[in-house]
Amino acid sequence: MANATHISPAHTSGFGAKLNSFFAGLSNGMVAYMERRTRFDQIAALQAKSDAELAKLGINRDQIPAHVFRDLFYV
Length: 75
Known about the structure:
By secondary structure, the chain is mainly alpha-helical. The chain has helices at residues 15-47, 51-57, 64-68. The chain has a domain at 25-68. The chain contains three helices and no strands. Helices cover 60% and strands 0% of the residues.
């Protein structure tokens, strides 16, 4: 038997709520930026490989973006 517990943060209003909202937005933006940057680094690393090295990985040069972002798209 499983027990579920929900813990909600203390309710804040006014300036505190606006400050919390600001930092939550900032945090979400930083996470999105870091994930995107990591993906671009992966693309650059694959672009630097030769066609023979890419063939060993089972991808063509024109398939690099689809390969890097394959977890985000259903084809």
